[in-house]
Amino acid sequence: MAQRHTFTQNATHRPMTTAHLAQTMSLLEMNNNELAEKIQNELANNPALELKEDYRCPVCGKKLVNQVCSVCSRPPSLDPSDPIVFVSSRNTYSSSYTSRRSEDYESFEDFSVDTEDLPFYVLNQIRTELKPDERAIAAAILHGLDDNGFYPQPLVELAVHHHVPLSKIEHVRSLIQHSDPIGVASQSAQEALIVQADTLREDGFDMPPLTKRALEEGFHELSKKDHRALSKRLGISISDTEKIIAFISENLNPFPAHAHWGSHRNQTSDEPERYQDPDIIISYNKEDPEAQLVVQVLWPIYGNLHINQFLKKVIAETKTDSSKQLAEEQQKAMLLIKCIAQRNHTLVQLMQKLAYDQRKFILKGDRYLIPMTRASVAEELGVHESTISRAVSSKSVQLPSGKIVPLSQFFDRSLQVRTIIKDMIEKEKKPLSDTKIASKLSQDGYNIARRTVAKYRSMEGILPAHLRKKQN
DNA sequence: CTATGGCACGGATT
DNA sequence: AATCCGTGCCATAG
User: Fold this and answer.
1) Alpha-carbon distance A237 to A133, whole Å?
2) Banded model confidence at residue A363, pLDDT cuts 50, 70, 90
3) What distance in Å separates the CA atoms of residue A242 and residue A248, rounded to the nearest whole number?
4) φ/ψ of residue A460, rounded to 5
5) What is the pTM (predicted TM-score) of this model?
6) Nearest nt (C1') from A386 Cα
7) Are the C-beta atoms of residues A59 and A73 closer than 8 Å to each other?
8) Pick from A43, A139, A239, A462: CA 20 to 30 A from residue A388's CA?
9) Which residues touch strand B (CB under 7 A)?
């Protein structure tokens, strides 16, 4: 299939000044956090630059009233036959927690999330799972969250107000509750904890027996940390009770809106995982496997950047020295806006290419990653290698699965084979030696040296054949 | 003798 | 130019 994007390519090849070039490069290698900081900085120092805070729905572009678009949450479909849809960076929104400054909470362990951001953050995760008539309900629930992330009002009221059965409201709320932060929109701390416990269990998390019952039946004792009374109620020993309490306080969070504690993740506690906010989000409608991929290049701040029109007028009309200086500032502001546009354009082009080529990887997981290099992408897009390199660096993508991975993972040469090996070992009957694995792989067309298999194996934290005899 | 990890080299990639 | 990565060789363990 030929070019499927409608973005103009030749717009890129405008002549640039060296300043333009230098700035575009440095902006390109910034992720959204850094870019947000940069923009804030410029806004503070440059009077010619102006932020128009027109809050718009990230998906329909409609003006927002209560931070959450109450009407729609469906991405606009530019062309229904196109497998990829872009919600480009202009007029999109800042994803939730993105805008918090680190110094805001460094000293507090239990900082409270800006609850104005929370609805956005959650809505974004569930958008593609909502049916049209459920959107307004989701918006209403998210709008009614209190500071702790609870939805204290009775659900029946919503059902009456929206003229739908209570079960529908419950369904929507359950979707919300299972988003990150898990348990949000529960009616109480107790309910939030139960939802979290359920989710962890579904994820195959080991937890002490009776944890759920402790939450359901012994919540009163639990909140008072009354070990004796709790153990009596559950009919188990004190030490088992203490295990439950320890588990709950370590892994669960009664107030979903207060800082997330590192959401659930794979069983293996591997490298220090950074919970970076994504710069790009890829989602799709999970009910329709042929659905379009929705790629959002997130815009790190609220509102859009503009040139201060008032100042522009002043500059045009006066010819004093000070206005000359202002004119310079204005030039700088225009340059910045242009460079940011350039950056976004590059990112969109890159994601276009990746979303199209790696659709299977995005939808189905690591083993469908087609190995590709930055250089080859650069060639196809007609840009310099270093451009791609910068664009890829320090960015992260949220995949439809909810996983947030570094953008560089798209260029991981070995990820595909590594996951195939992992699968192979999981399905093995007798432990396979590295040599066996290597020869099996070459039958499937993967020519990998035995030595390399060993390396991949250890990268995945899998023990050598003779040590994994009878596991699981 | 087989399976695996360490070290280091060279080519690819950034 | 600097770094990363796959691979070969060899030593060691079982």
Assistant:
1) 49
2) confident
3) 10
4) -85, 0
5) 0.60
6) B14
7) yes
8) A43
9) A 373-375, 385, 389, 411, 431, 433-436, 450-451, 454, 457-458, 463-466
